[in-house]
Structure formats: structure tokens, C-alpha cells
User: Fold this.
Amino acid sequence: MEAPNDTEVATRLRSILSGFSIEITTREASKIDDFRHYLGAGTEVYIVSTPSTQPEEVVALAKRLRDEDMVPVPHIAARAIPREDKLNRWLENLNRQAEIRAALVIAGGNYDPPLGPYSSSMSLVKSGILQRHGIFDLRFAGHPEGHPIVGSTDLMNALLEKQEYGESRQLSVSLVTQFFFDFAPVAEWAQQLSRSGIRLPIKVGLHGISTLSGLIKQARFCGVGASIDTLARHPAKMFRLAAVAAPDNLVIAMVKHSMTAEQTHFSGCHLFSLGNFEKSARWASAIAGGSFELDGKGTIKLHADL
Assistant:
């Protein structure tokens, strides 16, 4: 197959960013005057769960997002839930005030031992409490570069379990990956999923607009180790990353791969704003709206400043 030209890449790039999602913390959201100034109606905004985030803050932000024409998707960390009755009340409030239909369900590995009855994302899902509150669209974390604690075989088996459970219960199940600095491991991981019979749609995580030091700090925190090692072995890549804070080369690599691969389950992109929501949202929105051009060197030139 011939390599796609810039016009074809630009068309696919706009298409794959058209349904992007983005995440934000409750603290950062308090600095945003109106989400409609940065995002199109219907954009999914993930509400990040941190140890300091209070349940009522998540409910308030979810309601605000819904009122400002966004689709709120809360993070739910299973191991951080102290009691089922508290979770029940929280989900009731989310449903009543923000009509939550989707959630990113994570284990919450920072909570060891678990604070309550749920030891994993699937133990929470299998309890049925999410479905009882109208959440039938389940997103799970994908780890293209591996997990700091869980081995690769166990990770694959866990994804198979999630896929089979979703199919048996008629649930929508998909993956959202960690962000990365090198696309090659992501492409290989996606091929491994296919070989293992995993057909789940994959939203590819991209870092937002950030400084190099900020990216590395967040990468270490998120366990994105392999990409950092790759950068360390290739100083030229590190230099380009320092000079270009947007994930241009990564998303273009993803687009070209999806255009030439025999099969791909990539369904879109998810932005980790990393404390710079406004610029990250403007970057993605500009591409989704076609307000850009390619310079032929793996860089996206926007028609407006961030």
C-alpha cells in the first residue's frame, strides 16, 4: 500500500480528532469560565479522580458540564470507595443531577489495601451497582507500555474478562490508553490485543500542551516508563519534544498507522490536559474543525494561536 499523502492524512486527522475527549480536575475546572468557549457541544469531559477530590465536587462539576452542553464522564476508582452505601448515594446524585451514562472505571492502585469492599475495577462492575444507576457505558484503562505491578499476561486476561463480561451483559466496553512519547509500542500493543482476540474500541491517550519537565513529571507519576527510556536513547526526539509541546508527531503517526494497517481498533483520541486545559482543548478543537495544515515535517500548523 502506498504511503498516504498530506491531504489524505489531514482528512483522516480531522476525522479522528472530531470525537476527541479531554479530562480535567475539579480544581482546574474552577478556573474555566465556560467550557463552551473551548469545546464543541457534546464533547466528553472526563472528571479526574484524585485523593483530595470530594464526591460532591464531582457531582457539581458533572452538573455544570451537562448544563454547558458537555458530556461528563467521571473517573471511578474502585479501591478508593469506603462503603457501598456511600457509593450508592453518590451515584444517585450523579444520575439525578447530571444524567451520567458513562464512566472510566479504574482499580485505584494508590489505595493499598482497598478502603472498602472493591479490590479491582471488575469487582465493582460485577457488583451491578453501576448498571443499577444507569451506567452501561464502561471505559477501562489501557496500558500499551505495561503496568508497574501487573504482568502482561494478567493484563491481557483482564481485558478478555472485561470484553466477555460486557458482551454477556450487553454493556458498551472500551479502552482509554495512557499517554506516551513513542507510538511504536502502542501499535505493537494493539496488534497483541488483536492476536489475543480482544476487539475493544481504543481511544488513544495523548498528552496535552505542556512543558518537557511537566510531561516527564506526569509520565513518571502515570507509569509511562518505556517512552521515557526511548527518549533517553534518542536525544533528537527529546529535543523535538522540548521544542514542540503539542503531540503533533504522535497523532500523525497514529493516523498513518490506522490508514495503512490491515486492522485497527483505534476509535479516537483522549487528551490528558496536564494542567493546561485551555491550550490543549484549543489544539484539539482547531484540528477537529479543520483549522490547520500540515507542514510536511510531522508538525501541525494551526490557523490560530493557542
